Amino acid sequence: MRILLIGATGQLGTAVHETLTARGHEVITVGRTGGDLRYDIAEPAQVAEMYVQAGAVDAVAGTAGDVPFKSVAEMAPTDYLSAFYGKVLSQIELVRQGVSRIAERGSFTLITGILGGDPIPRSSAAAMANGAVEAFVRAAAIEIAPQRINAVSPSVFTESLPKYGDFFPGIPAVDLAQVTQAYVRSIEGANTGRIFSVV
Amino acid sequence: MRILLIGATGQLGTAVHETLTARGHEVITVGRTGGDLRYDIAEPAQVAEMYVQAGAVDAVAGTAGDVPFKSVAEMAPTDYLSAFYGKVLSQIELVRQGVSRIAERGSFTLITGILGGDPIPRSSAAAMANGAVEAFVRAAAIEIAPQRINAVSPSVFTESLPKYGDFFPGIPAVDLAQVTQAYVRSIEGANTGRIFSVV
Q1: Are A44 and A59 in contact (CB under 8 A)?
Q2: List of chain A residues with pLDDT < 50
Q3: Nearest-CA residue of chain B relative to A72?
Q4: Which of B102, B117, B94, B114 is nearest to B198 (CA)?
Q5: How many CB atoms sit inside 10 A of residue A45's CB?
Q6: Neighboring chain B residues of A44 at a CB cutoff of 8 Å
Q7: H or E stretch including A148?
Q8: Residue A31 β-bridge partners
Q9: Which of A23, A84, A162, B114 is buried most, with the most CB atoms less than 10 Å from its CB?
């Protein structure tokens, strides 16, 4: 398949890129600072330009979302707005603008994360964003068939434990290799409206 | 208790108002067009003014949220943004600004709805908003104790079936009287971080 991969220079994006390429797919990478195409999908107008430049694709996969981590008391309204633009609207736009552009039986795979259901302190913006995207996925799935849409919701990556491990005490980590398989399942499988939890 | 009730002139707000008053609570009603206090909580600055005017309260209950209903293809980015301001950020602001103002063991009860988990066509913005609020509730709960926070997630109201019944084919409706009991449970009980589903 010809797959548009967003967030391609990040830790997860790089792993998904390798996995999909190894399975014989043609991957077009999109990033703000690196990749085949350079766009910031938090800007709806840039999503439109991205689709024009990308041409025909069979699948779209999101692997990135920017959200601030602060306590509820430390957050400002702009922090929640930033999380909304950075992880929710950005991924909704991939779908909203993509339905008329990708293959008739193409798919969207969005990224959420464990914090939507299992929060840690300072994660209210991340949780909010993940919950929003997961509910959007369920709602969009029943409208866009035969196109499909799923989300991948991973725990903290084993590879990220040196950096973030202290924030996830006792919470099982997952290898990036397990997370990339959830993308394979969403893209190559037949499911829709599913949240593939990798925990 | 002294309870601040937002969305007090709506169908649900009116029912919650009656139930809480009948149970001996002092209810201060807030609405955009009616109520003891007139504020639009979709504006963070108005939430601040509302709390100043309300004075000391033991509980805050939200019963309203504005979201557009359109197919994914018909939505504009501004529609999702409108749902975010109208149902997500508005209720987050009740909490974010309220934690330093309400009673030490006070509570917040927010409104979501069945569409977050069980969508119908044209409900992607509503679903997104409900999923966002529910995940926020779980995340905020572990930070704000001993203050508490829950959400009430009702199905379509029996009383609304003449107007909205056609959009909920075969989906069991619930009486407003059942929904108001979930508010009582959240406000007078001891739970926190719960989504009280009324379906």
Answers
A1: no
A2: none
A3: B96
A4: B114
A5: 11
A6: 77
A7: strand A148-154
A8: A38
A9: A84
Query: What ipTM was estimated for this complex?
Result: 0.97
Beta-carbon separation of A143 and B132 below 8 A: no
**Strand (E) or helix (H) holding A83:** helix A77-83
Q: Whose structure tokens read 């725990």?
A: A155
Which of chain B's residues have a Cβ under 8 Å away from the Cβ of A81? 84, 89
* Strand pairing report for A2-6 and A59-62: parallel
- Closest approach of chain B CAs to the CA of A68, in angstroms? 14
What residue has token string 């949780």?
A: A127
Residues of A with CB under 8 A from a CB of B: 44, 71-73, 75, 77, 80-81, 84, 88-89, 92-93, 95-96, 99-100, 115-117, 119-124, 126-136, 138-140, 142-144
CA distance A78 to B159: 37
Domain A2-198: CATH superfamily, name plus number: NAD(P)-binding Rossmann-like Domain (3.40.50.720)
* Cβ neighbours for B158, distance < 8 A, ≥ 6 positions apart: B173, B174, B175, B176
pTM for the complete prediction?
Answer: 0.98
The three-state DSSP-derived secondary structure of A20-79 is HHHCCCEEEEEECCCCCEECCCCCHHHHHHHHHHHCCCCEEEECCCCCCCCCCCCCCHHH
Please state the domain extents for chain B.
2-198
Contact B131 A129 (CB under 8 A): no
Confidence at residue B9, expressed as pLDDT on a 0 to 100 scale: 87
Cα B33 to Cα A139, B4, B29, B124, B157: the distances in Å are: 31, 16, 11, 27, 23
The answer to whether residue B137 scores a pLDDT higher than 90 is: yes
Q: Which residues contact B127 (CB under 8 A, 6 or more apart)?
A: A135, A136, A138, A139, B115, B116, B119
Which of chain A's residues have a Cβ under 8 Å away from the Cβ of B115? Answer: 135, 139
DSSP state of A170: T
Task: Point out the residue among A124, A127, A136 whose CB comes nearest to the CB of B127.
Answer: A136
Q: What digits encode the pLDDT tens for the residues B6-37?
A: 998 899 999 999 999 999 999 999 999 999 99
